[in-house]
Amino acid sequence: MTAKLSDHFGYKKLLRFTLPSVIMMIFTSVYGVVDGFFVSNFAGKTPFAALNFIMPFIMLLGAFGFMFGTGGSAIVAKLMGEGESKKANEVFSLLVCVSVVCGAVITLLGFIFMENAAALLGAEGEILRLSTLYGRIVILAIPAFMLQLEFQSFFITAEKPQLGLYVTVAAGVVNMVLDALFVGLFKWGLAGAAAATALSQAVGGIVPIVYFGSPNTSLLRLRRFTFDGRSLLIACTNGSSELMSNISMSLIGMLYNIQLLKYAGENGVAAYGVLMYINFVFLSAFIGYSIGTAPVISYHFGAKNTAELKSLLRKSMVIICGFSLCMVGLSLILAKPMSRIFVGYDGELFALTVRAFLIFSFSFLFAGFAIFGSGFFTALNNGFVSALISFLRTLVFQTAAILIFPLIWDTDGIWMSVVAAEFMAAVLTVIFIRAFRKKYKY
Question: What is the spatial distance between Cα 200 and Cα 194, in angstroms, rounded to a whole number?
Answer without folding.
Answer: 10
